[in-house]
């Protein structure tokens, strides 16, 4: 029997809305200026993650650009889309591929690497002579996206565990 919102399995509730919010925040985090760089008190520029990727490619650092794309764009977007697939299958009572929850956990272990990349870019800019760099408030949607994705992943893990243990809270006997 497919789980429903009234079945007592509360863990899967709200996942699509939260994943959609995570994807919107990810888009904002990738496109809004996330770093501000100042050189010689004359040059001043703000850069988004996508701007940084473009500059890396223009400078011939394709491998580094590919790493940033993999961990800051593809992995977060892929994890959110996989969460939607997992929720859809769970919600419809369809079998969930055994590897999907493990794959999400594996991706989740790397989910903060993209923030580390931003920190390294700020550090690299600050170590250049006469340059100063700082992270702008636009990093907030990026961090919210990571937090929402982690939360949804946990909700789905709990929903699957509850379903495997007996089909939801409605089928469990009350505690004394």
Range of strand content? 5-15%
CATH topology grouping:
Butyryl-CoA Dehydrogenase, subunit A, domain 3
Question: What is the spatial order of strands in the main beta sheet?
Answer: 2-1-3
What is the count of helical runs? 6
Number of domains: 1
Total count of strands = 3
Distance between the termini: 28 Å
Residues in helices, as a percent range = 55-70%
Largest sheet: 3 strands, antiparallel
What's the rounded overall pLDDT mean?
Answer: 77
Unreliable segments (pLDDT under 50, ≥5 consecutive)? 1-8, 168-176
Radius of gyration: 20 Å
> Strand-and-helix sequence, N→C?
HEEHHHHEH
Q: Quick one: overall form?
A: elongated
CATH class: Mainly Alpha
Q: Which structural category do the helix and sheet elements fall into?
A: mainly alpha
How are the elements arranged and paired?
Layout: H1 15-31, E1 35-39, E2 43-47, H2 49-58, H3 62-91, H4 99-109, H5 113-127, E3 131-135, H6 139-166
Antiparallel strand pairs: 1-2, 1-3
Helix pairs in contact: 1-3, 1-6, 2-3, 3-4, 3-6, 4-6
């Amino acid at each position: 029997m497919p789980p429903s919102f009234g079945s007592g399995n509360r863990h899967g509730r709200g996942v699509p809305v939260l994943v959609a919010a995570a994807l919107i925040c990810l888009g904002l985090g990738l496109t809004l200026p996330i770093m501000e760089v100042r050189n010689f008190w004359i040059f001043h520029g703000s850069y988004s993650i996508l701007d940084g990727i473009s500059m890396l490619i223009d400078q011939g650092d394709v491998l580094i650009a590919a790493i940033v794309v993999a961990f800051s764009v593809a992995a977060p977007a892929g994890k959110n889309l996989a969460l939607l697939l997992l929720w859809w299958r769970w919600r419809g009572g369809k079998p969930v591929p055994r590897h999907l929850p493990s794959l999400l956990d594996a991706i989740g272990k790397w989910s903060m690497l993209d923030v580390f990349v931003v920190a390294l870019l700020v550090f690299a800019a600050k170590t250049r002579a006469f340059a100063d760099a700082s992270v702008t408030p636009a990093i907030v949607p990026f961090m919210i996206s990571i937090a929402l994705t982690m939360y949804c992943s946990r909700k789905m893990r709990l929903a699957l565990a509850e379903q495997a243990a007996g089909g939801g809270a409605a089928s469990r006997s009350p505690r004394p």
